[in-house]
Amino acid sequence: MSDAAGAFDVLAESLGGEDLSQGKLFGHRCLKVVGKAFLVDFDGDLVFKLGRDAMAPLFEAHADLAGFDPSGKGRPMKDWLQAPSDDSDHFQIWEEQVRDFARKTA
Q1: Are 14 and 30 in contact (CB under 8 A)?
Q2: pLDDT at site 69
Q3: How many domains in the chain?
């Protein structure tokens, strides 16, 4: 199991709730709230739907973060942040933001 898969499982358990479900996004496992994806285990990284306002300061503080660009064509999806699994110290910090943003936008 990759670090991202383990972190995904930990976050899935800690975020649990009856409105939460697991599914697929671009063929990768994801967590959904009310049917809307907000966390994806993507190629060894975790991808969080945080919102653009929350992402700007994170990009400044962490050089290894990127916008989520699943197509690889230089067009990152708005509101989505891709973090390498070795950033797992920060995953718990973002957990609350992820849940709140997902529920607001669902």
Answers
A1: no
A2: 94
A3: 1
Domain that holds residue 43: 3-105
pTM (2 d.p.): 0.82
Q: What angle do CA 60, 79, 65 make, to 5 degrees?
A: 35
Tokens 């898969």, located at residue: 5
Q: What is the pLDDT of residue 44?
A: 87
Q: Mean pLDDT across the stretch 21-35?
A: 91
The CATH number of the domain holding residue 19 is 3.90.1150.30
Question: In the prediction, which pLDDT does 92 show?
Answer: 64
CB 72 within 8 A of CB 43: no
